[in-house]
Q: What sequence folds into this?
């Protein structure tokens, strides 16, 4: 990664949020100075596909959403996951100074869930990651921050 990108993790899902649609998805970006929680836009097709067409609609909507997210990410990431701009700051839901990370992150793992809980200022955001992304993030955070 370039000198400004330290760690990038994709496709985290927000938990503990009441919603009738798809749960918000996030990426986690750590630069030399900050950790960013980037809230990715969801497509209307995703919500409508699941409601109107069931499983097949959900599959089609997932494909459309992956394309939309890929297009959004390409504004700040190149094909090698290198930062090419600071456009990500426009969708940053949370920006935590690196020196505050030790007190701002709690990692929890149970049989079914792998959670990263971010607390900073008045914000508390709980994200659930898949096994691979959770382990990558945990390894990075434990060796570089906590």
A:
């Amino acid at each position: 990664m370039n000198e400004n990108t330290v760690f990038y993790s994709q496709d985290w899902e927000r938990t503990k949020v009441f919603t009738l649609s798809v749960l918000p998805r996030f990426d986690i970006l750590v630069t030399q100075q900050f950790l960013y929680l980037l809230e990715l836009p969801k497509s209307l097709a995703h919500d409508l596909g699941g409601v109107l067409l069931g499983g097949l609609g959900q599959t089609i909507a997932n494909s459309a959403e992956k394309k939309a997210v890929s297009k959004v990410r390409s504004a700040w990431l190149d094909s090698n996951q290198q930062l090419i701009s600071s456009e990500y700051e426009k969708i940053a839901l949370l920006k935590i100074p690196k020196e505050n990370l030790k007190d701002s992150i709690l990692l929890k793992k149970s049989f079914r869930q792998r959670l990263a809980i971010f607390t900073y200022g008045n914000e508390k955001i709980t994200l659930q990651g898949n096994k691979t992304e959770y382990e990558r993030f945990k390894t990075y955070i434990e060796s570089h921050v906590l």
About this structure: Residues 44-52 have pLDDT under 50 and may be disordered. The longest strand covers residues 5-14. The helical segments are 44-73, 101-104, 131-144.
